[in-house]
Amino acid sequence: MRVGFSSIYSWRPHVEHLIFLARLMRSAGHEVRFLTCDSDLPTCYTRELRPYARTNCLSCRAGGVRSFERLDVSSIHSFAKTIQDQNSSEWARSSASTIGRFESNADYDSQHYKELVAKIAPAVAVAYSAALSWIEREKLDAVCVFNGRMDATRAISEAAKAAGIRFVSLERTWFGDGLQLLPDESCLGLASVDRIVAEWRDVPLLLNQATRAAGHVASRFLHSNVKEWQAYNVGATTLQWPASGHRRVLILPSSRNEFYGHPDWESAWPEVTAAYDALIDRLCLKPEDIVLRCHPNWARYIGQNDGSLSTSYYREWAKRRGVTFIEPSAPASTLDLIEQAEVIVVGGSSASLEAGILGKQVVAIAPSTYQAAGFQIRAYSQEEVDRLVLPSDPGESDRVARLTLRYAYSMFYRLPQYVPFVRSQTTTRYLYRNGADPDRFADLCRNGVLKPDDLSFASNDADEDAVLSLIKRGQWENLIDRFRVLETQDLGEELSRRPFFQAIDRMRNLMPLGHDWRKIAGN
User: Fold this and answer.
1) CATH homologous superfamily of domain 241-402?
2) pLDDT per residue as tens digits for the range 397-406
3) Residues 6+ apart with CB under 8 A from 270
4) Does CATH place domain 2-172+493-520 in 3.90.1570?
5) What pLDDT score does 493 carry?
6) Of 57, 281, 443, 483, which is the most exposed, with the fewest CB atoms less than 10 Å away?
7) Residue 238: DSSP 8-state
């Protein structure tokens, strides 16, 4: 088999992950080829996100596949002669959405959004044309591409489709360990996620499995989750429920721009606040029953944009409805609010993990990775809201917590591939163990069916019950201690880059994570 690998962007640790897979395939006698960008595109996501940074292309090239591999690496510019436009504007929409951090329908109808799409589209066309030529010249049987949703990476996945070969998208996993590999889907695809989560929803966990899943959840409650890409609300302060109503409904909106345009994440609502209005009517809620807590991410800059569009959109709705509104910059603990709430309304938010593990009623107004897990209450449309009845069974809380624990294990250990062999130390530093099976990835490239990384399970609920009892009592430190005992000491080694680039790594590692590039660029 001959497999092509492409990252385009050199954000840590994705290139490293590609190299791990490529070397794994080589070890089994397969041939590998690489496609990279050597400052070949007229623009890209990174350059539009940080236009003030003068070293975008230099940094990307320094961290690209050439820093690991010298042979069988092709540049986009060596192919892009006849430009095929295809659907480049459509494929540029996701990047433009995230760069501008748009939220409302009006934002997406704006001239600013249209101009961003038009600016990115030519780069998508170049990448698509080059990828088609690369696939044809190298006679590739499959392509593995980082992300698969943003501009050039989307173009490469679309080129694989057009060439009639399989593509596999690669992304960092939720809690870092293993690799997220989705066949014939971008990193946002839900087909494989839904299938695996649903298949294992009613299967009990062994004690070590339940402990591992609970350990990750506990790290969120204790704000010690150093492996997640972003940690929010770390310095939060305790907050008593700020509304005066008899009922306690917490709304936790998500950033629409992160999923905009992907069909798997679309609901039937014309806009998010229409779902909130419908729920208020259906549940006969009063304004004083509701608290809307903005996502802390909206108070941060990503590139040159903060989340003010999202904040303004929800602030205006809350003011119109008389709902208690908590700003994204507020230090109020979201976890405290979840613990005090009776119902949590989400639109894809990962906060459902904490809400579900506490046995809370989770009402979802849009699709998510947990829609097949069995613990949410669907409210994707007006029709579903019209039929919505909140459960009154006294055992419902325990059922929700159990299903959430199983969902967590599926997301952390079954869906990710090569979990024992790709181990996150921090968000960007990884260790790799020998012994991974190359046939697992080769089979994925051949048949397009993602298999669970762990097939073991318990015969009854007893082991889960022991862990769920600790969760119910809030024994988070205890769970973390038990989790650490299970962590292997033989974690592996770092993947080595070519000597010159190792020196760059040493300098880069001295820089703090999450630094403000605007200040470094002198802007």
Assistant:
1) Glycogen Phosphorylase B; (3.40.50.2000)
2) 999 999 999 9
3) 105
4) no
5) 84
6) 281
7) -
